[in-house]
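Table S2 (text version). Query chain:
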Amino acid sequence: MNIEQTENKIREIIEPVISALGVELDDIEFKKMRGKALLRVFIEKEGGVTIDDCEAVSREIEAVLDVEDPIPCAYVLEVSSPGLDRPLRSTKDFRRFSGKTVRVVTRDPVEGQTFFIGRLVEAGDEEISLLLPEKRKVTIPYGNISRARLEVEV
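Corresponding C-alpha cell output:
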C-alpha cells in the first residue's frame, strides 16, 4: 500500500471517531522515516481546538488504529490544530475564511506576479478574488494556486 492509500485508509477509519467527539478532521499527514512513521492528524472545532480536544482525539483514534492496524510499521501519532497560519487547500477552506488576509503563491504569474498577500474577498467555484493593500483586486483560478495560507493578523 502506498502513502496515499494508507492516508485514505486512515482517514476512513478515524473520521467517524473524530466526528463523534464533536470535532472535525482537517487533514492527515503520513510520512515514513527510518524504521518508523509519523502520523499527524489536524483537527478543527468551532471556537478553536484545545489541548483537551487533542488529547481526547489522540486517545480515541490511537485505540481504533491499534484494532484496525492500517499502518504496517511503528509510528508516532501527533494530533493538533492547523494553527493560525493554516494552509488553505480546498474551495471549502477559501469560502470559510472569506474576509481574512491570505498569502497565495501561484504556479504561473497573474498580472506579472506569483506572490500575493491580500484580503480574500470572494471564493467562487472556479477562482478566488483578493483585495491587495494598494486597493487593487486580483482574481486567481484555483488551478493556478500553488500554495495558500492564512496570514496571522495582529
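Notes on Table S2: The mean pLDDT is 94. The domain at 3-80 is CATH 3.30.300.70 (GMP Synthetase; Chain A, domain 3).
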